[in-house]
């Protein structure tokens, strides 16, 4: 197997195991913490607050991530981040309110390191021809974490209306072990070699090179991130990043618990929380695999058709969720109904749509950042995670107060703005590429053509 592609596979396995632990925890955290509160009145931790702290810290620390990577390198940054994920999972074996929030801050800082390092490492192991394929394959492997972790939770929560201590400890122990396996895979990632410069003017980069912009010091990396953030294209892309952050927080921390809180779903409503995560994972994996296999073909037609498809899928799912779940479902157990009697089958179908649509957006974001900002990938991915995480934190802060219809309305508006902004950047990049191609053709024109042009000019 080609060296760089093997690195991408190792990276995918590492993230698949680490995020089997974390994304499963994010999906069930609200439900789990409510059960802990019922067993221990001294525990007052809240799932939405914890997730909001995680993403707020992640947003702030993303500004420092490029500087950190200049010191640790992408592999070191990912390892540091993965250890904070392991610590976060372990703290649930010893539930303390203060420990929950301290661990939330630490994992937020670690997430900035692991995701910025991942974006940089993926870019360095890709080129213009393979970035879409590698992004799709990585995304599909990452989202297998939703499938396996939540399938385990679905089995363990079967027939339970209250998640007891023994069940919780079995789940936390298993997720801790899985996260540790992911760290082992990240330890196996191989370093990238540089090619020596051939002369003072031109540097020949081999397949495994890092790019010169990534060699700046910590202060230069921070200034470079600020400068990149103020560019027109990055401003437009930030609208798309904001939408992915809000919809990430909705499907990962709000939607599945809302299904479990809808008691009209039946006696197994709590069990459906895990099953919802499984269907979200199925949508994510299918989307990532599809766009990974067809990456070389889809890039020929541009990234915008895939993003537009994701937009249509998401808006459809928002409408179906609106008519299926009661308005107060995000707040806790309720016997209320919406416009129809709550249907578990429709709820699972919407979970699948949310996952597939999210894959449409994220695979193309990875592709456009790795393709258009290959010489400054560390800052580009840090800014992506900063904007996305800030939006996710804001969503978690209002999720415990905003009715479901309000949250779905916000999602629909942001989806429209984010899709339009992404298409604007993609079309502008395509126009620049065509202009560059025409200039290249013009430069190769024969001397006779230039003489004829000059004669016409003087006439």
Task: Give a quick rundown of the structure.
The chain has 459 residues and is mainly alpha-helical. It has 15 helices and no strands. Helix content is 77%, strand content 0%.
Based on Cα principal axes, name the global outline.
Answer: globular
Number of helices: 15
In this structure, how is the largest beta sheet organized?
none
What distance lies between the first and last C-alpha atoms, to the nearest angstrom? 62 Å
The low-pLDDT segments are 194-215, 455-459
Question: Which value, in Å, is the CA radius of gyration?
Answer: 23 Å
Content-based structural category: mainly alpha
Mean pLDDT score, rounded?
79
The helix content, as a percent range, equals over 70%
How would you characterize the overall build of this protein?
This protein has 459 residues and is an all-alpha fold. The protein has helices at residues 3-39, 47-61, 65-91, 97-124, 131-156, 165-187, 218-229, 232-261, 271-293, 295-301, 304-324, 344-372, 377-399, 404-443, 447-458. It is globular, with a radius of gyration of 23 Å. It starts with a helix and ends with a helix. 52% of the residues are buried. Mean pLDDT is 79; it is low at 194-215 and 455-459.
